[in-house]
Automatic annotation (TrEMBL):
Family matches, as InterPro entries: HD (IPR001356), HD-ZIP_Homeobox_LZ_Class_II (IPR050762), Homeobox_CS (IPR017970), Homeodomain-like_sf (IPR009057), Leu_zip_homeo (IPR003106)
Matching CDD domains: homeodomain (cd00086)
Gene Ontology annotations for the cellular component aspect, listed alphabetically: nucleus
Bias-annotated ranges (Basic and acidic residues): 52-61
Protein's organism: Sesamum alatum
Protein name (Swiss-Prot/TrEMBL): Homeobox-leucine zipper protein HAT14
Sequence ranges of Low complexity compositional bias: 109-129
Protein family according to the UniProt entry: Belongs to the HD-ZIP homeobox family. Class II subfamily.
Molecular function, one GO term: sequence-specific DNA binding
Annotated compartments: Nucleus
Keywords, alphabetical: DNA-binding, Homeobox, Nucleus, Transcription, Transcription regulation
Amino acid sequence: MELGLSLGDATKPFGFLKENNTQKQQNTAIIKKSGLDFCIALGLTSSTVADGGREKTQKSQEEEEDDDDDDDDDDQSSEGDGSDDTQGETHLQLNLLPLAPAPRRISPRLQSLPWSSDNGSSENGSSGNMGRAAAKGLDVNRLPVAAAEEVSSANSVGSPFQMDLGMYRRPGNGNQMGGSKRDFEATGNDVVEAERASSRASDDDENGLNTRKKLRLTKEQSAFLEESFKEHNTLNPKQKLALAKQLNLRPRQVEVWFQNRRARTKLKQTEVDCEYLKRCCETLTEENRRLHKELQELRALKTSNPFYMQSPATTLTMCPSCERVATTTTAAPPTVAAASAKMGPIPKALPFPLTRPRFFPFPQTPTHPNQPAAS
DNA sequence: CCTGCCAAAGGGATTACGTCA
DNA sequence: TTTGACGTAATCCCTTTGGCA
C-alpha cells in the first residue's frame, strides 16, 4: 500500500500513479477539503489486487507469520530492502498488521503426515519447508488430540477446558447437549437454550429432515470454542473431530463456527484498519495545510524581495523522515522533469518500516533513510 | 415490526493426492 | 520410469440466508 501526498494541484496525479496500472489509480482517492487539495493514494504494491481480497489475504497471512516468528528480523529486512532501492524517495508505505495472527493454510493431507504437528514430531518445526509450514501454521500440540479424546471419553479432571457435557442429552439426539444439572442450577438460561436447541434438532432428526437447523451454542460451547480459537484459528481434521466429540457437535458445526469466527476477526481488523487510515488521512491533511501555509509565506517573501530572482535558484527540500529542511543552490530553477529524473524509479516500499506502533506518517524516533541503521 | 447477531449453506478457488494414458 | 492431464476430496474465504432475541 502506498500513500502519496500531493501538494497543490490534486488534478495532477502522482508520478507513480501515472506510471502504474489502472488498478492503482482506481485505488486512489482525491479528497478536496476546504480549498486544499489533498490526495491520498492507497494502492497495493504487489500484484494482489486481481483476485479480490483472497490473494491479498493469503499474502498478508504469510507476512503475519513472519512477523510472529521474528519481528526484529522482519523489521531489519524491511529496512534493508527499502533503503536499497528507495533512497531519496518520498513515498510512504503503511504496513497494516492485523492483530490476530493468521496461520498458513495447510492441506489436511499434510497435517496427517508423520511430520505434522499432530504426531508431535514438529516441536521445533525443522522438518523441511512443508513441515515448517505445518508447524508454523498450526500449533496443534497445544491441544493434543489424544489427550482431548481422553478427556472427552473419561470426562475426568485435569483439563481447563473440560466440561460436563451431555449429561442430560436427550436420547437419540447426537448433536445437541443439554448441559449438566450443575449448569442448570448456575445458569438456567443456558440450559433452557440448549434444551430448545436440542429439542429442535431432535425434532428434525425424528422427522428425518435435513433442513437448516438454527441452534444457539451454549455459553460453555462458545467459551470452549473461543479458547480453542485463541490457540489456533484453523483446525485440522483430527482437532475438528476431537472438538466435535468433546462438545457433542457435528464436525461440520465446529468447522462452520471456526469459519464464522475467522470472519468476525477479519471484520474487526478491517474496522481497526479503517480507523487507522482515517487518522493517517487527518494527519496528512494537517501536514498539507501546514506546507501550504509555508509555501505562501515563501511566495510572499519572494515578491517582497525584488532581487530574489537574480540570485541562483534555491530549492528547499524536506526529508520526509526527519523533517529537516535542506537548501540546495542550482544554476537554474529546477523543472518538474529534472526533479522527476532526479527522483529515480518509483519505490515500492519505504526505506524504513512504518508499522502500526509507530504512528504514520511521523515516526517518534525518526531514522534518516540515508543513514546506516543503528546497530 | 425492525434490527443485529450468528449459525448455516452455497459457491468459487486452492491445494494435495491418486490414477491413467 | 517419468510426466502431464484429469478427477477427487478437503478446506478455505466470501456472500447470502434465515432463525432468534
